[in-house]
Amino acid sequence: MVEHDSFAPGTPCWVDLGTVDPAASAAFYGALFGWSCDEGPPEAGGYRMCMLRGRPVAGIGVSQNPPDWPPWWATYVAVDDADATAAAVTAAGGTVLAEPFDILDVGRMAVFADPAGHACSVWQAQAHAGAGIVNEHGTLTWNEVLTHDLDAARRFYTTVFGWKADDGFLDDYAVFFLDDRPIGGAGVAVDGVAVGWLTWFAVDDCDAAVASAVELGAKVLRPPETSKVGRTAIVADPAGATFGVLTGSEG
Questions:
Q1: CB 211: neighbour CB atoms within 10 A?
Q2: What domain range is 62 assigned to?
Q3: Spatial distance between the Cα atoms of 133 and 104, rounded to a whole number of angstroms
Q4: How far apart are CA 251 and CA 244, in angstroms?
Q5: Per-residue pLDDT tens over the stretch 74-119
Q6: Do residues 54 and 78 share a domain?
Q7: Is the dihedral of CA 201, 207, 211, 214 positive or negative?
Q8: Is the pLDDT of residue 3 over 90?
Q9: Fewest 10 Å CB contacts: which of 73, 88, 113, 168?
Q10: CB count, 10 Å around CB of 80?
């Protein structure tokens, strides 16, 4: 278990789900991961903070994406200056989709697309630092971008966030490092799984989590399998939002 009150700049720090029916999604993830996802105050526009043991672990809100976009788990990267990062995105060949803006007193954010069109967000923390718990059952454990152009993704993200990329761990995969810490990755797109940023949640038992998700109405996109990192699977929730579940290997 890792509890966080702050994140170093360049670290994926938060994920949230944009969907057409936040109440239904809250019920699904609450049953699957044990979250409580009460609707926020009116000024939050229906946004729900999903809590575990009294700490925020994810968010669920009404989708702000174009109507033809599916529900999506968005990745947020912690930054010191959202405006400066937006400028760096443009300089590196990306596109700023939502210029930096303040969200109440909780933080300042921007949304961008990398050169291949994969959307990601940046978070300049104020009252809300990000996920209060990571790397335990039902919490964020990994973020990766799946793409058809791994070299372009490697160039773009290392330029914008100052990450280093190591290609030696898995075939067709680059692990991103911040200083000496692995903090995310980029991989060649997986058959049957949408390109773009993918959120992985830690679970105690991958197979049991997938079985529970299916009982709750999810669809299996990649069934449980064992890899160097542990046992993994990718599913789509009842609304179509894709996410991964991971039971990490010991040692």
A1: 14
A2: 2-125
A3: 23
A4: 21
A5: 999 999 999 999 999 999 999 999 999 999 899 999 999 999 999 9
A6: yes
A7: positive
A8: no
A9: 168
A10: 12
